From TrEMBL:
Annotated cofactor note: Binds 1 zinc ion per subunit.
Cofactor(s) listed in the protein's UniProt record: Zn(2+)
Record-level GO BP terms: tRNA queuosine(34) biosynthetic process
Active site positions: 89 (proton acceptor), 271 (nucleophile)
Enzyme Commission no: 2.4.2.29
The gene coding this protein: tgt
Domain tRNA-guanine(15) transglycosylase-like: 10-372
Residues engaged in binding Zn(2+): 309, 311, 314, 340
Subunit relationships: Homodimer. Within each dimer, one monomer is responsible for RNA recognition and catalysis, while the other monomer binds to the replacement base PreQ1.
Protein name: Queuine tRNA-ribosyltransferase
Native source species: Clostridium acetireducens DSM 10703
Length: 376
């Protein structure tokens, strides 16, 4: 259940009550594709850096170790030792990324495993069954994510199919939640808005899925080829047609600037591999923008990554030391930078929530954009 606490312009401050705890929104979900954050970060670390929600991947966990194995191990929460909310995506985006080895039909999608090439079928029912086996808190509906731009005629047909798939997801998850051996009988379903970069298709689809009275909604199919300006235009078009009293999730986005802009337009949930991926390559976020610790100017720099930051890396180590670790190819370098970047994102969301509650989000956003100077 979602409770809207405060609005500052269109920005929403809310609480989302789930079977695995209450999520304070806006929130950034830390991406653990294979039930682990890349960069040697544990679930114990996630708690220390303020992570509220962990996100795992249906497609990848289905392939390895297998969702049935995870079910036998008591579900994903027990398997990875995480007692807070988990969102699992449906596998739809991974199918999109396998464009050269997939075949889309009304019943679902045939594609080949990226691991061993074996043929796999996934449709709405299969996606729900896998996510039910995982026992995640929030399951995403199975959809088709199209590249931007795509021909209008194709996008229209794709969105109609995605709507039919959503109806099937809802029926199947209701069935699964009623079974005696289901791990999480209160699993929540989020529907996904699609429509490429066509405002009218997006709006009609938003109106259609809003009538299904789901517990949450997502805007999908963005950050896949369109400009930031196009993305913001689509968010502006779609948000008014989705329920304000339900959480809204912008999938796969994004940079700190993207997050501020989307919060300003009414978005509650975010996820992105960017902070962990950047951290593994020595690119770290600071209050004055992103820096590359491999640059020679940090060789004798005794300062922490970001002065005033309370993450484990900044409290104990210097830029010079972390740079040395990267040069020496020590795994600790990646770990410290991933911890820092995830702390930065989680703390950013905490500050955003405080700014909305304090009715100064607009000033906060302006200040941050000036500080980052476009470098975030």
């Amino acid at each position: 259940m979602y409770k809207l606490i405060k609005m500052c312009g269109k920005a929403k401050r809310g609480e989302f009550v789930t079977p695995h705890g209450t999520i304070q929104t806006p929130v950034f979900m830390n991406v653990g594709t294979l039930a682990a954050i890349k960069g040697a970060v544990s679930t114990m670390d996630l708690k220390k850096i303020g992570c509220q929600v962990e996100l795992s991947n249906t497609y990848h966990l289905h392939l390895r170790p297998g969702d049935k194995i995870i079910k036998k191990m008591g579900g994903l929460h027990k398997f990875m030792n995480w007692d807070r909310p988990i969102l699992t995506d449906s596998g739809g985006f991974q199918v999109f990324s396998l464009a050269n080895i997939r075949k889309i039909q009304e019943k679902g999608v045939y594609f080949n495993s990226h691991i061993d090439g074996r043929k796999i079928f996934m449709g709405p029912e299969e996606s729900m069954q896998i996510q039910s086996n995982l026992g995640s808190t929030i399951a995403m509906a199975f959809d088709e994510c199209v590249a931007n731009p795509s021909p209008r005629e194709y996008v229209e047909r794709s969105v109609e199919r995605t709507t039919r798939w959503l109806e099937r997801c809802k029926i199947e998850l209701d069935r699964l939640n009623s079974l005696p051996d289901t791990i999480n009988k209160k699993q929540i379903l989020f529907g996904i808005n699609q429509g490429g970069v066509y405002d009218d298709i997006r709006i009609e689809h938003a109106k259609t899925i809003a009538k299904m009275n789901l517990e949450g909604y997502a805007i999908g199919g963005l950050a896949v080829g369109e400009s930031h300006e196009e993305m913001y235009r689509i968010i502006d078009a779609v948000v008014p047609h989705l329920p304000k009293d339900k959480p809204l999730y912008l999938m796969g986005v994004g940079t700190p600037i993207n997050i501020l802009e989307a919060v300003d337009r009414g978005v509650d949930f975010f996820d992105c591999v960017l902070p962990a991926r950047n951290g593994r390559h020595a690119h770290v976020f600071t209050k004055y923008g992103k820096i590359n610790l491999l640059n020679a100017k940090y060789e004798l720099d005794e300062k922490p990554i970001d002065e005033g930051c309370q993450c484990p890396a900044c409290r104990h180590y210097s830029r010079a030391y972390i740079r040395h670790l990267f040069k020496a190819k020590e795994m600790l370098a990646m770990r410290l930078c991933v911890l820092h970047n995830l702390y930065f994102y989680n703390n950013l969301m905490k500050e955003i929530r405080e700014a909305i509650e304090g009715d100064y989000f607009s000033q906060y956003k302006t200040q941050k954009l000036e500080q980052w100077g476009g470098k975030a």
